[in-house]
Design a protein that fits this description.
The protein is built from three helices and seven strands, in the order E-H-H-E-E-E-E-H-E-E. The protein has helices at about 10-40, 45-70, 125-130; strands spanning about 5, 75, 90-95, 100-110, 120, 135-140, 145-155. It has a five-stranded mixed sheet. Strand 6 and strand 7 form a beta hairpin. The longest helix is centred in the N-terminal third of the chain and has 30 residues, at about 10-40. It is elongated and about 70 Å long. The two termini are about 30 Å apart.
Length: about 160
Amino acid sequence: MPKDVILTPDGLLKLKEELEQLSTVKRREVAARIKEAREFGDISENSEYDDAKNEQAMLEQRIAQLEERLRSASVIDASDIDTDVVSVGSAVNVKDEDTGATNKFLIVGSAEAKPPERLSNESPVGKALMGRRKGDVVDVVLPNGKKRQLRITKIDIGLK
């Protein structure tokens, strides 16, 4: 059973655009490559044909993956985001208690994560921040193994 994919409205739009691009333009390009490679003769020893068929298989796999993500997607509404508690869709300002460095993170679903600005709610930092409030200090073990204490200084709605 596939897990729910949490998306922002912007993330939903980007997935739909990518699916449309792959389903139309890219499929036609790959089909043209296959047709051209067939014209070279014996396909059993034709590397261009093999490459084009491999590209077609990867393309179809990506299209199926995007379709599945869209089927199981739940879209976050900005009006559902509470600025008292960190949740998916929150923009969170934090201060590192050791170094004094400040960062701002947008908490998103794993399908949209692009560290370091857009953190997945399943990442170590995202998971530690979820459900916390302004002023809370969270202990985080970063992917590189370092431990950090982050103080939440501000929580905003991160969606447009």
